[in-house]
Please model this.
Amino acid sequence: MKSFQKLTNECVTYTSDPNNKPFFQDQINEGAKISENELDNFVVEDTRTGNTIAGLAQIPTPENYLRAKFLYVTNTPSRYDAKFVYSEDTWQS
Model:
């Protein structure tokens, strides 16, 4: 698979117009998101760390969040892996 930079460079080279670079970058990113969604194959681009508040049932997500691959809570020294619940009915029961 070609890298993001290589795809961008090829697009600019083929059009001979470097002003189109931001457009091509946006389109390549959008295509990658669609492909990842269809293949259910997401790449972790960022690792985020945050603090939770006792008794709070929801955790704010980072900007541009799509879907987490792994999630765990650390309460020193223990680490608790989260279990994803995809059904509202299951979550409420």
Remarks:
- Residues 34 and 40 are 10 Å apart (CA to CA).
- The beta strands are 72-75, 78-81.
- The first helix runs from residue 4 to 15.
- The mean pLDDT is 76.
